Amino acid sequence: MKAVFAGSFDPPTNGHLNIIERSASLFDEVDVVISVNPNKKYLFSEEERMALLKEMVKNLPNVEIHAWNGLIVKYAEQAGAKVLVRGIRTTNDFSYEFDLALMNRALDGKLETLFIPTDEKFAIIKSSGIKELAQFGGDISRMVPKCVENAMMAKMKK
């Protein structure tokens, strides 16, 4: 069975990696899908996020990285996926993700959503907070993989 884990991944975090690894242990195939929104401003380009995620999952043979700029239910249908995986950090996340799951279910009644709560140690990790912390020279080493930390530090120096 194939699952899809979609997000902006700007930047990809240890929390994202935790959900990807756990999904990879549950499903035969996992497509990690970088959502591309041309109206949103990203720190990392689509290509940079793809390269970072590929580096992060290189030891997970059943995980592939893709980019998509449309409805995720359409991607899942095209890819033959039956499950959308969503990571949950807080009750606020759950409220948002629950509404999204209902909308996705209305668009494709055969597609299920699986909520995976993050490991406790990753509950406070949020991409926007990591970007702000890095901007002010804070230590992000426990929040992101080394490849992401290096890429962020290089971006902040520019």
Q: Mind summarizing the main beta sheet?
A: 5 strands, parallel
Terminal CA distance reads 43 Å
Shape: globular
Question: What strand order characterises the main sheet?
Answer: 3-2-1-4-5
Order of helices and strands: EHEHEHEHEHH
- How large a portion of the residues is in β-strands, by DSSP E? 15-25%
Helical content (DSSP H or I, runs of 4+): 40-55%
Average pLDDT metric: 94
Q: Could you give the count of β-strands?
A: 5
Total of helices: 6
Helix/strand structural class: alpha/beta
Cα-based radius of gyration, to the nearest Å:
15 Å
Low-pLDDT windows of residues: none
Q: Could you describe the 3D structure shown?
A:
It contains six helices and five strands; from the N terminus they run βαβαβαβαβαα. The protein is of the alpha/beta class and 158 residues long. The model has no long low-confidence stretch (mean pLDDT 94).
Structure characteristics:
158 residues; alpha/beta; 5-stranded parallel β-sheet; 6 helices; globular
